[in-house]
Task: structure prediction
Amino acid sequence: MLTQFLDARSSQNAALFNSISIPIPVINTPQLFAQIGLQTAGAGANPRVSLKGTITVQLPLALFQVRITIVRGTVATDPIVYSANFTYGLSGLLTPEVIVFSANDYNPPIASQITYTAFISTNLLGTVRVGPESFDGFIVSD
Result:
């Protein structure tokens, strides 16, 4: 059986390096940075979603951790399909850190549209989103 392409979408908040300055104001609290909705018309068996993205942060003067979380839905408490922690030291003070991630969601529940939302959080005040920021995905089925 051939794989059937259903939809692809992208969300780009900032295309250029150092083009935004958005602080993360509350520690350990997810901040939305991207969202896409994938149309599922004509979906067959075994739907599969592939997601990837980039976010760049300027770091505070300390060892700290950044968490990227992707949920199937619109709020941070929806089902998590991907979560990763990135730990940084003082090297991030001189140049912003580019975080690249890739995730998959196999056999998601089919609705007319499946929304995926990407969040960032940190355990230390002073982290600033500086760009670029990009999030995209596609869905296929059998």
In short: The first strand starts at residue 4 and ends at 14. The two ends are 6 Å apart (CA to CA). The mean pLDDT is 93. Residues 5 and 140 are 5 Å apart (CA to CA).
